Amino acid sequence: MSDESSLDPRRLPGNLVGYLDHPVADQVIEDDTLVVRGWVVGSNEDVDHVVLKRRGGASVKIRCMLPRPDVAAAYPDRPGCQRSGFEGRVPLAGVPSGACAFELWAAEPGRQPAAIFKRQIMIKRGPPPSLLEFIRSAIVKAILALREGRLSWAPWRWMGDLRRHHTDLQLRRPVGPATPAGPAAAFDVKAAVTNLSMAQLHAFVDSGARLAFPIEPAPMISIVLVLYNRSELTLRCLRSLLESGGPPIEVIVLDNASSDLTGELLARLDNVTIIRKAENVGFLHGVNEAATHARAPYLLLLNNDTEVLPGALQAALAVILADAGVGAVGAKLILPDGTLQEAGSIIWNDGSCAGYGRGSSPHAPEFQFRRDVDYCSGAFLLTPRALFEELGGLDRTYEPAYYEEVDYCVRLLKRGLRIVYEPRANISHFEFASSRTDDAIRLQVERRSLFVEKHAAWLQGQHQPIATPPHVARTRFGKVAKRILYIDDRVPFDHLGSGFPRARMMVQSLVAHGHAVTLYPTTAPNDHWAKVYDAVPRELEVILGRGSTGLRTFLDERRGFYDCIIVSRPHNVQILRAAVAKNEWPPAPLIYDAEALFSLRDAESSRVAGKVMSDAAVRMKVQEEIRLAHGASRVLCVSPQEAGWFEASGHSTTTLAHTVECTPTARPFHARRGLLFVGALNADGTPNSDSVAWFVEAVLPLVRARLGADIELTIIGECPPPRVQALAGNGVHVIGRVDDLTPWFDATRVFIAPTRYAAGIPLKILHAAALGVPVACTALLQRQLGWTDGIELSVGDAADELAAACCVLYQDEATWSARRAAALARVADDYSRARFDEVLSDTVRFVTSARVNN
Question: What is the Cα–Cα distance from 820 to 815, expressed in whole angstroms?
């Protein structure tokens, strides 16, 4: 039998339970202050404090008083767990660089104290510049200024220049002892950015150049920048705004009595509103005051240590313009080392916050889709100016800074408005540029207590930080919305055919109904992001780069996350089965989207090739395919005929066909010419490639014998294979892919669909009918649709029969008009978007409610 300590890894000496959040083992500390943070609870009485002990240093007492509702939820029977958190700042001034060990001691009242945590950290700091180094470097700089005619003889300028030079020298100091060169040497990215930016700033100031922003009589965005020193970063920010392009902007700068080159920089700006303060009024007060000068309908809070990358402003603005329910839009923040700072942020139920994805690659799939979040950093936060003013701006309770944007976003959420993370708004962020890291952490701790007190009731509905993986808490969505995993071959581009247009409609419908949907491509997982999001909604998470071999790991990472899984096509069911243990099938309530009975298509293909399968053999093949649906709560079929096969085997089915919008082309019968085929061609031997080759070789000569040799055929389809390309010539035009098909349908008189073997629903016929072009097709496609020969379609199976059907439509305007009208009416009745959405929503509701009820 295992003892209790093995069951609870947070068990500590003295019958205590706790955890040390910060610092981690061997963490590098570059500041003069060590932040110690964690929690501890006793078994019978409150633990009111912990004591930090370090050799050669005085003991430091840290009180346990911070709220920890997550601990209370995990250990409800232990006393004092509600306020068991501690956070203290331990001065490290005078402690030399190198390893430094400390212990935290604690005990319940009346008991012997024990060491509950032991940590070793690495202290790393650079020595201050020596007086000799300072004087030598200042003289060199003065000589250079004299040679270039820039030396000033005013005493106040000398004092200011010397002060700035001393600051520059400290910023450029290497951390710790001299670092050896070579691959193993540590590289300080922030120092490198600072050095480069400082060089660029001096070059700009010395050049006499100016930064001129356009005069905008009616700006769309008022950008608020609050400055306190770091003029070298401010220059980078301003230049990025000039280069980023997009909507008309105005820039409003409030300078909080900066003592560096900020004054010289601001003196070189044109068409910028500048507010100079005699003292540092803080970030929050500065934002509120600067916002009173704004003229644009939208206000952007922007840190001066950011660089706005091209496209960011228009991407964020597009989101807020598209939906009046959006209260604020935030960006993807990228740190100087190229890692992610945040892709939207999480507010936990104890008031602590986490930037989703921090430290990860900003290019990873989980950060590429748009979603609703708890809040976004005020480093880049776009909001309607009228709303900002109505709420009284940022709450002054949080002055001078920190938690003000968190509070602002929560106030928006309480009003029923949305906070949206927009991945196309990419921002480079230096982070903590105008404050020391330890000061920032101290202020965050203090403001967090204020935030928790103000929003205590709202926080009860938030996730617990210990028990909840970040991907569970990353998205805010409605109570009826579900998390859905959709597994298919690839991103469903419309031009691919083969059921992918219907798959695209499905993910569009699911996203439109507020569900959190993840698309997992199995066999083609390596598309480009821009191409992906031209085809699917921005709110869809697409897991590129993993494919079928990575599915097992992905499911382990997301265990228990999805309310249901939709898997399309037989081979993907097999891939999913292989990725899941037998005793865990299905891994979540399963919807099997059969898309088509491929065994029926294979049987037709064999018949066309002269290898006729017996009825018994066909039934056996169909049953093998149907058995793949074992464990599925519901099977989706594209036609009642295919649904009948599954129902006969005891499966619960729903017919979900396609959705097609009727937009009939206007050109009259007598102004149209020729025959048209549109479909995915892909490779020789596929249904469409076989059909057009058969039509050109066997049917078209018969058509021309009756109508004339000048009758032309146009074939449009992605990547025509060699056999199809060889058909070109003598009035047959092989076009390849076309993005806009409407002009081609408007010009043609008859659409042909000569398919000899296929499964599912012939979407190409639906599109042709919806565009008002009558169709001549084979009986196979007519049966799949359930339409009637002589009413919605003209049908022929043998070559002479299909030729006759084409000729009647081509010659007889009355017949042509009747087929056109009947097919349009049928598409409007059977394939409306509203009907498609309703059927799919009912299916998801049925499957997920069954899970809840069970």
Answer: 9
